[in-house]
Amino acid sequence: MTSDAEIEAALRAAFNQCEAENCPLTEQQKQILLEIAGQLLQSAQLCSPQRRTNPLDELTSEERLALLQFAKEQDRLNRPWKAKLLNDWLHNRDSGSVQFIRDRYGPQWLNRVKPIHLAKYYDQAAEVGLKLKVGSRIEVCNALWEWVQKGDTEALEWFPCTVVGLYESSDEDYTYTNCLVRFENGAEYEIQGIYEWNHPNWRWTVDN
Fold first, then answer.
1. What's the domain range around 44?
2. What's the domain of life for this entry (predicted)?
């Protein structure tokens, strides 16, 4: 692909040719042409097949969901998700629901994944893919009903449950979503603001 330097050199050669033909451009005209050429080049680069390729497109829907859940959980714990994976691989530790990345794709694929690639699927997930529905299987943590010091991951306990109800509530001009879950022992618990202030206190299970 043509570079900025090559385009600038071609334009300056054209400027010189104009002067040789006794029709020189003004400095303002030259600057406008250089800026337009730079914008066109940037647009072409953004639209090139290489730039459009998203490594997450190569995953199955189940693999993508597992990776998004993993990345979100590591972000909640203030840990870079890529560093966590590479550290697991370095010490030959199993990476749980995302072990498939090492087994099937490897470090070269991992290195291709950038934040913008995750953002594409986060945006989609926020609309459809990761929205809860009745019957969804999730895990909720004990921080919902007891005090856990922030950052104390060892004190967190996770409990599997099933979503049995979803409804919206309003507080003046603010609307939020409440969720009723049922634990395996039959007990039920209401989670207020599950997408809003309580989002860090639940996560998807790998069987979704």
1. 4-51
2. Bacteria
